[in-house]
Design goal:
With about 90 residues, the chain is of the alpha+beta class. The chain is about 35% helix and about 15% strand. It is elongated.
């Protein structure tokens, strides 16, 4: 929810045409604190969610939950995963 609001605000403020995809699955599945104030998350800049040294896994949106779970399972088998949330393309 924090990222959704920040990215949507950035899209609204951007002078360029933007397409904003919202997976409805996240409406009920994702919870979290969202500040009431105005803030934006920079478009075109990914977030490194987890540092890792063996492989890098990229995803965005609803797939992040699945990728983070897979990275956790890989970690249990001794594979260090870097997880990157693309956030915008």
């Amino acid at each position: 929810p924090y990222q959704a609001k920040g990215l949507l605000r950035a899209c609204i403020k951007d002078d360029n045409p933007v397409i904003f995809f919202e997976p409805k699955r996240l409406y009920r599945a994702s919870t979290g604190e969202v500040p009431e104030g105005d803030y934006s998350i920079e478009l075109g800049k990914a977030e490194v969610v987890q540092e890792g040294t063996d492989i890098t896994v990229l995803a965005w949106g609803a797939q992040m939950e699945i990728v983070e779970s897979a990275a956790e399972q890989a970690n249990e088998q001794g594979i260090s995963c870097e997880v990157i949330d693309l956030r915008s393309i």
